[in-house]
Design a protein that fits this description.
The chain is an alpha+beta fold and 170 residues long. The chain has four helices and five strands. The chain has a five-stranded antiparallel beta sheet with strand order 1-2-3-4-5.
C-alpha cells in the first residue's frame, strides 16, 4: 500500500461552499420577494381603505339620486335616509319636496367638490350640472348608522364652503 506523503508545498483541499451560497442567495431572494409583495399588498389595502372610507358617503348620495330618477322614491327614502331624517320628514313630505324641486334630480352630471368626514358624520358638497348650462350645489349631511352612511339632511346652497347661502333645507 502506498501512502500519499504530504509536503509543505501542497495545500489542503477546500470544501466547496458553493451550495451554501446558492441556498443563502435563494433564501434572501425569496425573503425580498415576500417583503416586496407584502409592501404592495399593504399599500393597496391602505389606499383602498382610505378611498373606500371617503367614497362611501358619496356612493350613498349617488344611489339616492338614481333611485329618485328611476321613480323609486320610497326606496330612496327608506334605504338612503337616516332615522332622524325619517322622524323629521314623512315619506309624503319627501315626495312633496321632490315634486317641488324636480330640477335637483334632472341633472346630467354631478361632482363632489368637498367631502369632510369626522367620526360618524360627513358633509358632502355635490355640484350638479344641467343641460341648459345652469348648476346647483347641494350640501348633504350624512350620519353613519349601523355601519352604513345615511343622508341626515340636505340643502340647496348657492356656493361652495365659505360662501354658503342657505336656500332651503330638508
Amino acid at each position: 500500500m502506498e501512502e500519499a506523503i504530504k509536503t509543505d508545498n501542497e495545500k489542503p483541499e477546500k470544501k466547496s461552499n458553493k451550495k451554501k451560497w446558492i441556498l443563502a442567495g435563494c433564501g434572501c431572494s425569496l425573503l425580498l420577494l415576500l417583503c416586496f409583495i407584502g409592501a404592495l399588498a399593504g399599500a393597496y389595502y391602505g389606499i383602498y381603505s382610505i378611498y373606500g372610507f371617503l367614497a362611501e358617503p358619496s356612493e350613498v348620495v349617488k344611489a339616492h339620486f338614481e333611485a329618485v330618477k328611476d321613480g323609486e322614491i320610497e326606496n330612496a327614502y327608506l334605504k338612503y335616509t337616516s332615522y332622524g331624517f325619517q322622524e323629521n320628514n314623512s315619506l309624503e313630505d319627501f315626495e312633496e319636496y321632490i315634486e317641488a324641486h324636480p330640477e335637483i334630480y334632472q341633472h346630467y352630471k354631478k361632482r363632489f367638490t368637498s367631502v369632510n368626514i369626522k367620526n360618524n358624520f360627513a358633509e358632502l358638497y355635490c355640484y350638479l350640472n344641467y343641460k341648459d348650462g345652469t348648476n346647483t350645489t347641494i350640501l348633504f349631511r350624512m350620519i353613519k348608522e349601523e355601519d352604513d352612511w345615511k343622508i341626515d339632511s340636505f340643502e340647496i346652497v348657492s356656493a361652495v364652503p365659505g360662501e354658503k347661502e342657505d336656500i332651503e333645507e330638508v
